[in-house]
User: Which sequence fits this backbone?
């Protein structure tokens, strides 16, 4: 077990983790505080909340790929430092925001600055990690991210209950500042990649071109994007699923925590499994997730009861298998994408996945309104299974058999 984490002897890996913990936590710590400000203090409704969601997510799809060009042409450690420093500054601006429009504008700006961080981190991981450790390193970082998604909003809500709103925002700004300071030892620790003239001149387009040139990467991206679209057909409706089983608000809250905990375990497990054969791990995880989702939805359609314990175990399994799709995808990218375009490729994949994730809840909500949430959940499960089967069939056209022998 300890040999699997021998990479932590490298000080760069330790500083990467030290940076990731506060950086990922800062993504979620003030989420509840800002929502509380909008809803309970200013009395805003669905339109403003929809605007908040768009401002929070859209920059990762629209701006991230452009900023990633600068990361590839420069040095990822410096980009990580500036991203966290910029996030600290923009978070502090919320303290002086006079109205809703200003808050939404600051959230938009903050997400734009933050969209620089993930591609830079992926580029840094690729440059400082040996091929044998890529699975474990990516699994550990994804586990940190999943933990932050669970702990962050809850901790933010707890802080909001015991301290003023401004203090919560200030605490989050300090977290981003700590992340920036943890990035300083990484600045200059990985030499800039050598780029060809074509890679330099292509700019943001090169992030898309790397997928069109590699059929296996394109297949993996389409698979991941399609699977996340299917997940988000019903993900935002899980509270209604809890209602169907008579579990109430407490059951729903525990299900969110259970899904997050499953994501942490799944990320760590995927890190151990994905090192050798990332695509088969993705396909197996999708099959388990899809079939489990279909079974739960059919159970709900039949009106059968389900206790809290099995419901939590099922949500943990779904959360775990979702993480087991993302970690192998990143390993595959870091093995097949040239270092000179890694940040752009990472930002492109994040842009595609974010775009479909924004579209899916609208369709899922419409399906739930018309036919019920169990139908939306069932369709999501069916789609994931079909995608897994299609990807399995498509591997031979992408040259998977030969690439596996080359440790792709």
Assistant:
């Amino acid at each position: 077990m300890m040999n699997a984490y021998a990479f932590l002897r490298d000080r760069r890996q330790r500083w990467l983790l030290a940076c990731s913990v506060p950086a990922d936590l800062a993504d979620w710590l003030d989420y509840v505080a800002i929502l509380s400000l909008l809803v309970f203090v200013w009395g805003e409704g669905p339109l403003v909340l929809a605007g908040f969601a768009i401002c929070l997510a859209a920059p990762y799809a629209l701006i991230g790929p452009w900023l990633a060009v600068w990361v590839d042409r420069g040095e990822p450690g410096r980009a990580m430092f500036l991203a966290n420093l910029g996030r600290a500054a923009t978070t502090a601006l919320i303290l002086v925001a006079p109205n809703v429009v200003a808050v939404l504008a600051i959230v938009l700006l903050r997400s734009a600055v933050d969209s620089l961080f993930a591609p830079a981190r992926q580029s840094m991981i690729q440059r400082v990690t040996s091929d044998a450790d890529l699975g474990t390193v990516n699994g550990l970082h994804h586990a940190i991210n999943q933990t932050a998604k669970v702990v962050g909003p809850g901790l933010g809500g707890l802080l909001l209950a015991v301290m003023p709103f401004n203090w919560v925002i200030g605490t989050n700004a300090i977290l981003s500042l700590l992340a920036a300071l943890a990035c300083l030892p990484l600045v200059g620790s990985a030499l800039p990649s050598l780029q060809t003239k074509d890679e330099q001149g292509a700019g943001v387009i090169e992030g898309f071109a790397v997928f069109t040139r590699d059929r296996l990467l394109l297949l993996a991206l389409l698979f991941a994007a399609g699977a996340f679209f299917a997940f988000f057909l019903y993900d935002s409706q899980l509270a209604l699923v809890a209602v169907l089983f008579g579990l109430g608000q407490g059951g729903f809250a525990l299900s969110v925590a259970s899904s997050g905990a499953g994501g942490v375990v799944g990320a760590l497990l995927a890190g151990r499994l994905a090192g050798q054969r990332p695509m088969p791990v993705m396909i197996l995880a999708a099959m388990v997730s899809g079939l489990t989702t279909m079974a739960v939805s059919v159970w709900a359609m039949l009106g059968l009861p389900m206790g809290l314990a099995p419901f939590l175990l099922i949500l943990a399994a779904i959360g775990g298998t979702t993480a087991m799709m993302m970690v192998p995808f990143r390993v595959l990218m870091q093995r097949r994408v040239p270092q000179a375009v890694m940040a752009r490729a990472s930002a492109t994949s994040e842009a595609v996945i974010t775009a479909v994730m924004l579209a899916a809840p609208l369709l899922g909500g419409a399906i739930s309104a018309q036919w019920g949430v169990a139908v939306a959940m069932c369709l999501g499960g069916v789609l994931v299974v079909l995608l897994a089967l299609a990807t399995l069939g498509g591997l031979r056209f992408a040259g998977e058999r030969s690439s596996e022998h080359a440790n792709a």
